[in-house]
């Protein structure tokens, strides 16, 4: 019996070795080749305007506001690719143009280039700009201290906005979104296709949060009251606030996942709300929390 088992093991040994070699070959094939990086300092400045648009940026971008009339770019330009293509690196630049009262800064990498030429650094803008429109295709974006309208459009990008006052529109294809100490005006729209969203702040006259895939957390003042249009298709709902339908029949049980025409009511508020909050979650959990008071 022992001889028979030993014979079977020896017979299978070449097969095992072959499959082991195939697995190792596949593992090496799937391995991402290391990117060759070259970095150079990029410091420049441009004239400001009432409205500013940043187009097509790639990299880790930090936007701050200051008492200035000029746009300052401070950071590093980099190339990430399997080979060092200095022609592609050197041909990439920031293109500047003026369209009426809009100053447009466009990140212009070479066409048909398989690698990435991006910018990591800080963009300093005039504090009194009326509107900022930012597009980041890949990387991360941080915006702090705005007091005007802010529009953000991104690809695969994590987004952070801190201490913002004014209209806010955020549209993210993939990435986590964190919005803290936000005081919107008339418009607040946040749409995330894939990723988690966390919002700390007050609501606007018209507030809208949409999440296709990812958890949504809203941290609102305890006295918040507003009309509510809410639908969570797949996921649970947890709320510190009372959520109720506008019209409820006697004995009707409120479906916490779907309130198409109702109220969100904070503590000590019994007035008729004028603001409206729309929440649409396809797949993800919804958490509505009361902000801690200092």
3D architecture notes:
This protein has two helices and 20 strands. The protein has helices spanning 2-30, 86-91; strands at residues 36-47, 51-66, 70-81, 93-99, 102-108, 116-126, 131-144, 149-165, 168-174, 177-183, 187-192, 197-201, 206-213, 216-220, 225-234, 237-239, 242-245, 258-265, 276-283, 286-290. The chain is elongated, with a radius of gyration of 26 Å. The protein has a 20-stranded mixed sheet that branches. The longest helix has 29 residues, at 2-30. It folds into three domains: 1-31; 33-130, no CATH class; 166-294, no CATH class. Helix content is 12%, strand content 59%. The chain is mainly beta.
Find the structural class using helix and strand composition. Answer: mainly beta
Task: Profile the largest sheet.
Answer: 20 strands, mixed
Shape annotation: elongated
Low-confidence spans:
2-34
Q: Give the overall pLDDT as a whole number.
A: 86
Spell the H/E element sequence: HEEEHEEEEEEEEEEEEEEEEE
How many structural units, i.e. domains? Answer: 3
Helix percent reads: 10-25%
Beta-strand segment tally: 20
Distance between the termini: 78 Å
Task: Please give the count of helices.
Answer: 2
- What share of the residues does DSSP label as strand, in percent? over 45%
CA-based gyration radius: 26 Å
């Amino acid at each position: 019996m022992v001889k028979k088992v030993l014979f079977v093991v020896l017979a299978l040994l070449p097969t095992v070795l072959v499959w082991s070699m195939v697995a190792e070959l596949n593992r090496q094939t799937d391995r991402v080749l290391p990117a060759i990086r070259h970095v150079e300092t990029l410091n420049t400045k441009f004239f400001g305007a009432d409205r500013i648009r940043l187009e097509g940026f790639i990299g880790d971008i930090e936007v701050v506001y200051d008492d200035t009339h000029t746009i300052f770019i401070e950071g590093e330009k980099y190339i990430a690719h399997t080979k060092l293509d200095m022609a592609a690196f050197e041909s990439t630049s920031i293109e500047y143009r003026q369209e009426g009262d809009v100053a447009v800064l466009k990140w212009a990498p070479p066409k048909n280039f398989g690698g990435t030429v991006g910018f990591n650094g800080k963009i300093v803008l005039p504090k009194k700009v009326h509107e900022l429109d930012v597009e980041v295709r890949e990387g991360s974006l941080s915006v702090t201290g705005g007091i005007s309208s802010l529009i953000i459009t991104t690809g695969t990008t994590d987004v952070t906005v801190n201490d913002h006052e004014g209209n806010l529109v955020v549209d993210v294809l993939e990435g986590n979104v964190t919005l803290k100490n936000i005081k919107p005006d008339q418009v607040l729209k946040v749409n995330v296709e894939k990723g988690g969203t966390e919002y700390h702040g007050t609501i606007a006259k018209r507030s809208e949060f949409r999440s296709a895939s990812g958890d949504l957390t809203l941290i609102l003042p305890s006295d918040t009251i507003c009309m509510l249009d809410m639908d969570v298709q797949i996921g649970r709902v947890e709320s510190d606030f009372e959520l109720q339908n506008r019209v409820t029949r006697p004995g009707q049980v409120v479906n916490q996942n779907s309130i198409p025409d109702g109220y969100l009511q904070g503590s000590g508020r019994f007035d008729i709300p004028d603001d409206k909050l729309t929440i649409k979650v396809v797949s993800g959990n919804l958490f509505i929390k009361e902000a801690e008071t200092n």
